Amino acid sequence: MTGLAQPIIGDPRFFLRAGPFPLTVILERIGLSAEGLPVERVFTGIAPLQTAGPGEISFLTNKKYLETLASTKAGAVILDPGLVRHVPAGTVALAAARPMTAWAHVAGLFHPPAPVSAGIHPTAVVDPSAQISPEAEIGPYCVVGARAEIGPGCRIGPLVSIGDGVRVGQDTRIGSHASVSHALIGARVFLFPGVRIGQEGFGFDPHPTDRGFTSIPQLGRVVIEDDVEIGANTMIDRGSSQDTIIGAGSRLDNAVQIAHNVRLGRCCVIVSQVGISGSTTLGDYVTLAGQAGVAGHIHIGDGARIGAQAGVMADVSPRASVVGSPAEPVKEFFRQVAFLRRMMRREDAAKH
């Protein structure tokens, strides 16, 4: 096989391509003024600084790559206004207050998402009582249960299981092999492949009998609000006596575990391998870094930031930043680390 080592952005085997587009269309897309810019220029696509040609648009967000910017052949570069002076002659500087957002819009212009192919695949099994919009796509070997509702513009991938009574809002995408039960899902939600939504929570009486533990009925639901993305193989348990809620705009990475009755606020970011125990609540704009663990029945305030591999065992104040296990404020944690290092140096010096 040839060409495997050659980087291709937007490989046409996997991504749709659109264009070319004049600069005026691109400026309109990202909300920039055309004043002083060569609006007659036409662009055919996007590419990294290292490989972009005169007909392509690139971007820069890190000063670390200023040398690469100086030698780029890109026709235009999206970047922070403070870096415009570094743009080489012949390259159009597209100064944006939020370069990453502007880049996302331009990338979406040249590589739009594949359109929904409305209809139900002949291998799908759909209960007669299910309500499926004629504008939705139901993929091969899907199972859609009784009284389920699937809105317009939805794409349900192959081998997906949609349980009885589940409601899926418009323009939602569900990846292959996902299973969804006991859930109400909002609009423009993206569930990646292998997601498990709505299974029973880990609830039982911890005192064993001669027949083992007594399971507690899990009678709540999962409510996923609008514009949420949930990564591959993430699991969200339904509530026991109240709902598990994922707040609007939140982003969950791959392999995250959300237990029963957990409530996430708006625009939370939960990174891979995080586990949140039952009945814990998160405010708005909370970030949990990779492999953090959160105990049950606690509250994490708005805007709090939890470091990687932290063990959170008590409430966290709004806008606090904590690390370590047990988690504590960042400054206090590193003060302790510095103290221990000094003590170790003194001990080593005493031995010698």
SSE diagram, text form:
Layout: E1 21-22, H1 23-30, E2 42-43, E3 45-46, E4 56-60, H2 66-71, E5 76-79, E6 92-95, H3 99-110, E7 119-120, E8 125-126, E9 131-132, E10 137-138, E11 143-144, E12 149-150, E13 155-156, E14 161-162, E15 167-168, E16 173-174, E17 179-180, E18 183-185, E19 190-191, E20 196-197, E21 204-209, E22 212-215, E23 222-224, E24 229-230, E25 235-236, E26 244-246, E27 251-252, E28 257-258, E29 269-270, E30 275-276, E31 281-282, E32 287-288, E33 293-294, E34 299-300, E35 305-306, E36 311-312, E37 321-323, E38 328-329, H4 330-351
Parallel strand pairs: 3-4, 4-5, 5-6, 7-10, 8-11, 9-12, 10-13, 11-14, 12-15, 13-16, 14-17, 15-18, 16-19, 17-20, 18-23, 19-24, 20-25, 23-26, 24-27, 25-28, 27-29, 28-30, 29-32, 30-33, 31-34, 32-35, 33-36, 35-37
Antiparallel strand pairs: 1-2, 21-22, 37-38
